[in-house]
């Protein structure tokens, strides 16, 4: 597609439920990134995929968080047993191996 | 580990004036890239400008220029002729050219352009 597409744009869930957030990157972009932005804060790196290399998971805050990227394209970020502190905007970005990132519009997660 | 510092939580500027948003960085790597992104109230992250660590000239993109001072490890964003639409959060970020490529972001500066 023309840009990075994320879904859902908004998700409200109850504490303890699992959620899945989807990212469809720009066609041909080999790199894909997930970030988290809490209210009024900067962006916190979560995970990075580059081609067929093993992902850089060093930013995942706990083992409740996981992500996969199928076929080198679409990525899913999964949060298990959600907690209220998981409430944030989850941003996906993609890029060529070098060059500026293009961000999606984000998925706003609210955990009640 | 790399670190980005933005010391100005908020800035005001009069319409049509120039404004400088400060950014300093810390890394032991020699090859890296510096980025500025704009985030309006709608939430999307908009890429503004990029400077490579080996670029000899300061980057410019329209009304945006990056004042790169490598020895001081600073990468300030200059916006000339401010417009009301420039009101937004501005983030400075850095990535390494080798190893971890994920962008490390600063805490941001909220710019408000006044008429």
For the residues shown, what is the average pLDDT of chain B?
93
The number of helical elements of chain A comes to 0
Q: Note the main sheet of chain A.
A: 6 strands, mixed
Which H/E pattern describes the elements of chain A?
A: EEEEEEEEEE
How confident is the prediction overall: mean pLDDT of chain A? 92
Q: Decide which structural class fits the backbone of chain A.
A: mainly beta
Outline the structure in words.
The complex is a heterodimer of chains A (112) and B (115). Chain A has strands at 5-7, 10-13, 19-24, 31-37, 43-50, 65-69, 75-79, 88-95, 102-103, 107-111. Chain A is an all-beta fold. In chain A, the strands form two sheets. In chain A, strands 2, 4, 5, 8, 9 and 10 form a six-stranded mixed beta sheet that branches. A four-stranded antiparallel beta sheet of chain A has the order 1-3-7-6, with no helix packed on it. In chain A, a hairpin with a 6-residue loop joins strand 8 (88-95) and strand 9 (102-103). The model of chain A has no long low-confidence stretch (mean pLDDT 92). Chain B is globular and about 45 Å long. Chain B is an all-beta fold and 115 residues long. In chain B, the strands form three sheets. In chain B, strands 2, 5, 6, 10, 11 and 12 form a six-stranded mixed beta sheet that branches. Chain B has a four-stranded antiparallel beta sheet with strand order 3-9-8-7, with no helix packed on it. In chain B, strands 1-4 form a two-stranded antiparallel ribbon. The relative contact order of chain B is 0.34. In chain B, strand 7 (60-61) and strand 8 form a beta hairpin. The N and C termini of chain B lie far apart (41 Å). The chains are: A mainly beta (112), B mainly beta (115). Chain A binds chain B through residues 31, 33, 35, 41-43, 45, 48, 50, 56, 58-59, 89, 91, 93, 98-103, 105-106, and chain B through 35, 37, 43-45, 47, 50, 91, 93, 97, 100-108.
